Amino acid sequence: MAGVTRGRLRIYLGAAPGVGKTYAMLGEARRRAERGTSVAVGFVETHGRPQTAEMVDGLEVVPRRPLPYRGGTFEEMDVDAVLARRPQVAVVDELAHTNVPGSRNAKRWQDVELLLDAGIDVLSTLNVQHLESLNDVVEKITGVAQRETVPDEVARRAEQVQLVDSTPEALRRRMAHGNIYPAERIDAALSNYFKPSNLTALRELALLWLAEKVDEGLQKLRADLGVSETWETRERVVVALSGGPEGETLLRRAARIADRSSGADLRAVYVARSDGLTGASPAALAKQRRLVEDLGGTYSVVVGDDVARALLQFARSENATQLVLGVSRHSRLAHLLRGPGTTAAVTRMSGDIDVHIVTHEHAAGSWRLPMPTTGVDVRRRLWGLALSVLLPGLLTPALLLTDDALNLTSDVLLYLLAVVTVALVGGAIPAAIAAVLSTVLLNWFFTPPVRAFTIAERNNLLALLVFLAVGAMVSAIVDLAARRSSQAARATAEATTLSAVAGSVLRGETALTALLDRLRETFGMTSVSLLERQDDTGRWSVAGSSGPRSCRSPGEADVEVPVGERLTLALRGRPLPSEDRRVLGAFAAQAAAALEHQRLAQAASAAEDVARADQVRSALLRAVSHDLRTPLASAKAAVAGLRADDVQWSAQDVAELLATADESLDKLTYLVTNLLDLSRLEAGALSVFARDVALDEVVPIALDTLGPAADEVRLDVPPALPAVRADPALLERVVANLVSNALRYAPPGRPPVVTASALGDRVELRVVDRGPGIAEADRERAFTAFQRLGDTDNGAGVGLGLALSRGLTEAMGGTLVPDDTPGGGLTMTLTLPAAGPGGSTA
């Protein structure tokens, strides 16, 4: 259809079903129809909602296409009919829908693409969980795998994406009132997909995705309009890193600036040379990158030889509003020789970007001249010094023997070749010596008047000066190249070593030993020890070691690397060059962190054991004084009454007293059994015999143990549910405890409901009551052993049953979570892993 303008797509995006996407879409369709636009409904799914169905009334509806599939008949949008009708606007609900086999396309979004290509505008709806890029994230949040997805590119190409928003509380109220799902699906939906935590996370995902699309649209608009200046639609702070020691100061200062700017985005950028060589430490850059991520920012690397221009190009491409730089570390003399630094250039060219220049302790202001480093080793330098004398010395008599066959220009070029050769071998210093010596020899032997240090012609003077300058520059360039090559090779080696250290995921007590082993192997040392000085005696103790003959004090080490005030890394084997100190420092810091982690883990384990023991001890005291005394007192009173000689009891009174004693002793036995099981749980001594078991077999048995009171409980446990992996006896007790608790608080005429459903690789059992419920702030306290809310009223709150139920559930690998029942009450959700394929359901 050449020449047809592609139609425009508007998507109504929602965080979850029921937020009102279809209603909003139909509202827009009606408004356009009222304005005279040709509108046709290709497909709308009302889900039985009367308000949505009313919005369709009055709109032209294209008949759907019936398709047979697996013995039934299904209706899909008739794309060909909509194309034949050719309205100006087509309404197509549920963009992510999968069509029934036999349809023209497999996916509805592909149908929509056909309509758009035909020049028809389309209104459609989409939930955030159906976006391809967010599909796995949504599954982790909700536990539900979404098989119907839409490529993000399709949604991003939409001309308009309108968010239809609703708070989690409002959406749950709509659900509870029956405005979204039928009554039989409400409880399961509210307890699963429509949990407040799920809805909050989905809503945030939708807002973030839409914010990214809005930002993409803004960048595209700026590019289309050729806008280079900053549009301050959103604060963005860019901090420039050089890999120097001031980086951490700059990052923290930039983070504070971003926080004060209403949570602005933080972006860190490092400008690398285009030749791939840099004097920055890879370890320092890696450390600063981790700090950026810890501060909630993003890290980028751009390439450019002009650092100032590269920084500003990056800042403007990110639509940054503020740029943070550090005061230069170069000396004043260096600025005089090299010209203005990066900070001055950025400030001059920043335009409408605010520049913050942050001082730091590493800033330089002196006139010192930094000593250059060289990449030429000692052996090459010695050869270069020898050649700096030999080559000019041998070349001079050779030229004299030519008996004036060559002119001065040829002599200069031959001496220049000798200087370049010396520079390639020995570096700058030998080349400088060769250049000076060659100049002297040229002047004395070959520049008229010969054998005199005077020069008769200006051209000859200029030739000698140019020769000396070229020789100096060539030697400097060769030396710089050698230095850069040496730095690059060393940086690569350091980066490889440090990445191996950073990439090693070490845990537990072996972390320190493994790290010291790696250090010893990396540097080929005999032994490596981490020494710790004792505060009370000042003596050194070995916190960790690797290799034989480990050092017992720093004085025994060939290499010593202090780590703080109390730790020292001691290496034995051979002295190491000073260049290795940077990598050694990284190893030492990692070793100190590993030691601290090991000790914190040990302390946490010890504290956890003490806390657990104290909790059990407190629970026992409360049990003896609170729960056990009541049935014991009742039983003793009944027995004492029966044994009284001064009272004549009738047969009915005797039976009643015996029943009271029997009931009290049963309660006492039940409490003691629970107490013993809880003690075994706390001590980790409870035996769990897990196997595949069906819920529809366990739940009725659990209800039978509760007596006649459980007859009113409503059961909705489908036999087709997958089996769960659990201990049948423990599972029966958990279900019995939960139902017993629900019966205790269920109002008359509204018995508890026990339902179950499958959710991914889990199975959920819900015990729903319509009682007073538990305030959200008190829900965790309800699971504390022997804790009754307030500890004053035996008839209120929950006690040992819930604590034991959660402990038994977790021992079987499940979870027990309380939640509100819509309309009032408490819903206890018991989640257990589903049995594996092929498991028994016995």
Give a description of the structure.
- By secondary structure, this protein is α/β, with parallel strands linked by helices.
- It folds into six domains: 9-223, P-loop containing nucleotide triphosphate hydrolases (Rossmann fold); 236-358, 3-Layer(aba) Sandwich (Rossmann fold), CATH 3.40.50; 378-482, no CATH class; 508-603, Beta-Lactamase; 628-683, no CATH class; 691-833, Histidine kinase-like ATPase, C-terminal domain (Heat Shock Protein 90).
- The protein is 48% helix and 16% strand.
- It has 25 helices and 24 strands.
- A six-stranded parallel β-sheet has the order 3-2-6-7-1-8, sandwiched between helices. Strands 11-10-9-12-13 form a five-stranded parallel β-sheet, with helices on both faces.
- Helix 15 (378-401) runs antiparallel to helix 16 (408-426).
- Pfam families: DUF4118 (PF13493), HATPase_c (PF02518), HisKA (PF00512), KdpD (PF02702), Usp (PF00582).
- This is histidine kinase.
- GO terms for molecular function: kinase activity.
- Keywords: ATP-binding, Kinase, Membrane, Nucleotide-binding, Phosphoprotein, Transferase, Transmembrane, Transmembrane helix, Two-component regulatory system.
- It is an enzyme of class 2 (transferase).
Write the layout of secondary structure elements.
Elements: E1 9-14, H1 21-34, E2 39-43, H2 50-56, E3 60-61, E4 65-69, E5 72-76, H3 79-85, E6 89-92, H4 108-117, E7 121-127, H5 135-142, H6 152-156, E8 160-164, H7 168-176, H8 183-191, H9 196-225, E9 236-241, H10 247-260, E10 265-272, H11 282-294, E11 298-303, H12 307-317, E12 322-326, H13 332-338, H14 342-349, E13 354-358, H15 378-401, H16 408-426, H17 428-446, H18 458-503, H19 511-523, E14 527-533, E15 540-546, E16 559-563, E17 567-572, H20 581-627, H21 629-643, H22 651-683, E18 691-693, H23 695-704, E19 714-716, E20 724-726, H24 728-745, E21 753-759, E22 762-768, H25 800-811, E23 815-820, E24 826-833
Parallel strand pairs: 1-7, 1-8, 2-3, 2-6, 6-7, 9-10, 9-12, 10-11, 12-13, 19-21
Antiparallel strand pairs: 4-5, 14-15, 14-17, 16-17, 18-20, 21-22, 22-24, 23-24
Helix pairs in contact: 1-2, 12-14, 15-16, 15-17, 16-17, 16-18, 17-18, 18-20, 19-20, 20-22, 21-22, 22-25, 23-24, 24-25
Protein name: histidine kinase
GO molecular function: kinase activity
Membrane topology: Multi-pass membrane protein
